Backbone:
């Protein structure tokens, strides 16, 4: 079992890492939505890509790679996959 | 609050009993003398616990939520003024989900044994309590349909119309009002309609730029109810589609 990486960080550095992580995921999600709105990549393909990331994270939980963080990361990605999928559940999308 | 119109699709022969039950419930709650003033975010019922009270919201908003350890949350139901909630305290020894206030709120509560005594001896109160469960079920059915089949845009449009209709029918806002206070943050809206806060933000922007509605500092301003209704229409149930408090003059109440 690997040690939780957050434990070894100074609080101010941890905060900065969290801010970057939060900004990154928000930016990524905005880009996914833009790609769908502009019909550059089909929604299904993007959902599949996020689901691959979820599967990878869940495998890391099973493998004991900082499982607490990986489990929450999988939860975050699940939310994004569901949200992205909701862009296309109507006729004409 | 004593308007029969708020009892969606009720059988006409139940109307007088439902209205009498509403009066008796109000009296019973007053007699119980347990008015509570709570701040936003206060947990009323902890998930997975036995809880002995049934509540009625006088003012403010509350919700039922379920959370997973991986950070996923679902805001299951939103309770608005005049509504009775945690009726299940009379029948079950465990509440599976958390109930908490979404805004500063004034509530009344009654011990389940006291309400159950009245429930088993007064048919008007029985009808009124059962009615709340029936109404909650109606909304949950619509919401399940919306989460399963609706787009993010349709879900948000439905939510804005649902809040308007229920607030108008409970007398909190005028029947033709196009603005109302709404305490949910974008993150809470996201947890309710099953998308992320980023996605909520993006849809809100689209609605605002299309001149349909906007939310600013906790106030919903509907600028084009007809178009909002059109967007929400696939998810509206038959009652909502014909009720003016939900959809404006497009609704034709036939009761």
Residues:
């Amino acid at each position: 079992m690997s040690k939780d990486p957050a434990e070894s960080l100074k609080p101010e550095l941890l905060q900065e890492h969290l801010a970057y992580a939060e900004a990154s995921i928000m930016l990524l999600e905005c880009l996914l939505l833009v790609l769908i709105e502009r019909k550059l990549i089909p929604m299904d393909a993007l959902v599949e890509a996020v689901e691959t990331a979820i599967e990878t994270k869940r495998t890391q939980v099973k493998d004991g790679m900082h499982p607490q963080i990986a489990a929450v990361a999988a939860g975050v990605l699940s939310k994004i996959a569901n949200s992205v999928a909701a862009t296309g559940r109507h006729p004409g999308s | 609050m004593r308007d029969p119109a708020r009892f969606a699709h009720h059988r006409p022969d139940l109307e007088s009993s439902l209205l009498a039950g509403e009066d008796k419930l109000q009296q019973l709650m007053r007699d119980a003398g347990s008015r509570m003033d709570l701040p936003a975010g206060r947990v009323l019922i902890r998930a997975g616990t036995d809880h002995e009270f049934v509540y009625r919201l006088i003012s403010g908003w509350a919700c039922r939520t379920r959370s997973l350890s991986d950070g996923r949350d679902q805001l299951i139901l939103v309770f608005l003024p005049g509504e009775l909630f945690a009726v299940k305290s009379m029948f079950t020894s465990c509440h599976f989900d958390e109930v908490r206030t979404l805004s500063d709120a004034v509530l009344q509560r009654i011990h389940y044994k006291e309400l159950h005594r009245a429930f088993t001896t007064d048919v008007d109160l029985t009808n009124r309590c059962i009615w709340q469960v029936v109404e909650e079920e109606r909304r949950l059915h619509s919401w399940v349909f919306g989460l399963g089949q609706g787009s993010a845009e349709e879900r948000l449009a439905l939510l804005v119309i649902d809040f308007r209709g229920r607030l108008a029918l409970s007398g909190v806002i005028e029947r033709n009002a196009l603005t109302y206070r709404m305490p949910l943050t974008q993150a809470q809206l996201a947890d309710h309609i099953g998308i992320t806060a980023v996605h909520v933000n993006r849809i809100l922007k689209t609605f605002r730029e299309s001149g349909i509605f906007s939310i600013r500092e906790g106030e919903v301003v509907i600028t084009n109810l007809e178009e909002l209704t059109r967007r929400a229409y696939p998810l509206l149930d038959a009652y909502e589609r014909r009720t003016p408090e939900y959809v404006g003059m497009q609704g034709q109440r036939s009761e």
Residues 151-255 of chain B form a domain with the Arc Repressor Mutant, subunit A fold (CATH 1.10.10.10). Chain B has two domains: 1-149, 151-255. The interface with chain A takes residues 68-72, 149-155, 190, 194-196, 198-199, 202, 234 of chain B (CB under 8 Å). The first strand of chain B starts at residue 35 and ends at 38.
